[in-house]
Amino acid sequence: MECLLGLLKVRVVRGLNLAICDPLTHSSDPYVVLRHGSQKVKSSIRYHSINPEWNEELTLSITNMMLPVKIEVFDKDTFTKDDSMGDAEFGILDFIEIAKQELSHIGDGAVMKTIHPEEENCFATESQITWKDGKVSQDIVLKLRNTETGEIILHLQWVNIPGVAR
Predict the structure, then answer these.
(1) Are 30 and 17 in contact (CB under 8 A)?
(2) Distance (Å, whole) CA 151 – CA 71
(3) Which of 12, 41, 77, 146 is most buried, judging by how many CB atoms fall within 10 Å of its CB?
(4) 66-86 burial, b for 16+ CB within 10 Å, e for fewer?
C-alpha cells in the first residue's frame, strides 16, 4: 500500500483560445481530465466555448511526488468519441518539497521558488510557488501540446493530512 503524502487541490480556472472542434458553431464543448498515477478526475463540460471558465476544484491524493500530473482537454460529442483538444503535464516535486517544510516563520506572500518555461515542461509563463494565508500555492499557465492552440490556467494548493509526517 502506498503512503499518502497529502492532497493536491487543483482549481481548473479557465481555458484560453482552445481549438475549435465544432466547425458549424465555431466553438467546442470542452472539459478537463486530470490524472495522477491511477487516479482520474474530471471537470464539468462548458458548452459552446473556446475560452471556458470552470473555476472548479478537483482533488488528487498524492502518494508519489515523482509522478507528474497529466492534463487532457476534450470536446464532448454526443454521437461519436470525444475529440482530444490537447494535453499537458507538470511536475509536482518542487511544489510538494516546499509544502512539506515548516513554513510558519515565513512572511505572508513570500515567493518560495520560481519555475520558468523550458523545453521539458509545458509552462507558458513563469510560475511562482508562494506561501500565502498559511498555505503553499501556485498559479500555472500550461500550453497544450498535440494541438494547434490553447492554454489551461490552474491554481494549485497543498493540503497536509493530519497525522502524516512532513
Answers:
(1) no
(2) 11
(3) 12
(4) ebbbebbbbbeeeeeebbebb
- Could you give phi then psi for residue 94, rounded to 5 degrees? -60, -45
Assigned C-alpha cell, 36: 495522477
**Cell numbers representing residue 139 in the block:** 498559479
The Cβ of residue 53 has, within 10 Å, a number of other Cβ atoms equal to 12
For the chain, domains (ranges, CATH) are 6-157 (2.60.40.150)
Per-residue H/E/C for 2-63: CCCCEEEEEEEEEEECCCCCECCCCECCEEEEEEECCEEEECCCCCCCCCCEEEEEEEEEEC
Beta strands in 52-102 (DSSP E): 53-62, 69-75, 83-90
Give the pLDDT means over successive 10-residue stretches in the chain (166 positions). Answer: 87 98 92 97 97 98 95 93 96 93 85 91 95 92 97 95 61
Residue linked to cell 490553447:
150
pTM value is: 0.92
Contacts of 48 (CB under 8 A, 6+ apart): 25, 27, 28, 29
CA-CA distance, 73 to 165, in Å (whole number)? Answer: 35
Q: What value, to the nearest 5°, has the Cα angle with vertex 126 and ends 15 and 36?
A: 60
**Amino acid letter at 12?**
V
